Amino acid sequence: MTFQNMDEVYKFYGRYAYEVGFPMKKYRERKNCKWLDCSMEGKCPVRAVDNPKVRNNTSSKRTKCKAGMKLKKIYDDAKENVIMVRIDLLHLEHNHEFIKQQEEKDQLHRNKIHDPEYMEFIGAMQDSRVRSIALWIMYQKCMVVLRTSRKAARRRGKMPMMCIFWSHASQQGDYIDFGDAITFDMTHKTTRHVLTTTYSALCLGLGDETVETFEWVFNAFKTCMGTEGPRVILTGMVCIHAIFRSRPCNANSTTQSLPKRNAQIVSMARENRFMQFLNELYARFEEEDFKLKFQSIIHHPLTKREFETAWGMMLDDLHLHDDVSLKNLYDIRKEWIPIFFKKDYCGVMVSTQRSESMNKLMRSTHVDAKTPLHEFAKQMMKLLHNRKMKEAKEASACKGQKETNTLYEFEIKVARAYTRAVMIRIEESMRYATAYKIERDPDGVNDWVVQHTKRSNGIIWGQHQFKVMADVEAGRYTCECKQWEHT
């Protein structure tokens, strides 16, 4: 087979590599020939064990693959210009697995080009210089591309659009996999159409913040997501709490459509209402380390009695029994102290920080208060597309075999299955696990007592001994801290 120039051969072999699912590269080149090989060619250099410059967490995808083609250059009579390129040698056998996911194929260096369908969609939205009707045009196009997209809208009087709720297939899939605990946090910013917006796990615009509006939001959430509600909702909004406090569960209530646990929505943002008063106390008792003691009392106790005892000791030491702010915080302790709802699964989320980071990313790079509705929806799609591509890039980067710190079979299996970020956290956990002393509990067959080897005497009530139940035969593991159950 012959080609007119090297670019045609590169495009031809690149298309073949894309369809099969392997990365390619331009290899050696001579005056009369050139090689196009699989990127898995070669092997990772072996480093000496006693070499002080050995790098940790290194990985290599090279598997000594021999697949590729050798090209023969045919010159003109003057031996200056290439007039034809011929395939002289071809190897098709690979010794590694092929890439099957479409998103991972797009992350290959050869395939990092703009998606023509997506660019056509963006161009159509930019050309639609009309009012909010462009949003419905976007919805119709999304319904064609994503058959499982869901949308809902609410109108009131002459207003063209009171509330908007929209989700597509990737968001619904993420909710099915990771929707046991979610955050619901508004941006507290409005668009040019006076719609408060949120976009942590969905695209949502609200005309007001009343009880009826949030009831509509929860009903639309259940309808569009097509599944049951989450176990726990973390929010810092007082209006959300009003829904469940002012209206009991009945056949016509929103709380009836959500799990029973959601009747008491978890809120970890109560402390923010008292930050002004707490900052005054932080500055007043800076020498006594009041801030450190206060934060440790909130997060470290394992039992309710332990928290109440520690709180009383703090008031006695600093003579703060008459402080109104601390008294009000203590009265609502069941709504914001983790120990009072540690049995409820929350995926180790204790605040709305995760949704706040998404809101900041969206506001800083994609939208602002002057963004029209159809542009807002387009930018939301762009953000989700970018995140999807980054996830595919991370998945593609984890294909290589990672060097583990130990030869434990557990660590080797984890290194093959999880991403680099998760692997780093697991390695840190394994390192910190060596700082604990484990003893068998005489009161239980499968019970163990875990205690840190370097306990601090600075906090009297903080000398913890964690009781761990490990039934290997039944496959049940639990700890008082609930970290195992929540991860």
UniProtKB/TrEMBL annotation:
Q: Where in the cell is it found?
A: Nucleus
The record, for InterPro entries, names: FAR1_DNA_bnd_dom, FHY3/FAR1
UniProt organism field:
Paspalum notatum var. saurae
Per its database record, what is this protein's job?
Putative transcription activator involved in regulating light control of development.
Which Pfam family, any one, appears in the UniProt record?
FAR1
Read off the lineage from the record.
Eukaryota, Viridiplantae, Streptophyta, Embryophyta, Tracheophyta
Chief localization class?
Answer: nucleus
Spell out the family assignment given in the record's similarity comment. Answer: Belongs to the FHY3/FAR1 family.
Entry GO MF terms: zinc ion binding
Q: Which residues form the FAR1 domain?
A: 11-98
Gene Ontology cellular-component annotations:
nucleus
Q: Tell me, which GO biological process terms does this entry list? A: regulation of DNA-templated transcription
Domain of life according to the entry: Eukaryota
The chain's coiled-coil residues are none
- Identify this protein by name: Protein FAR1-RELATED SEQUENCE
Question: Which key words are in the record?
Answer: Metal-binding, Nucleus, Zinc, Zinc-finger
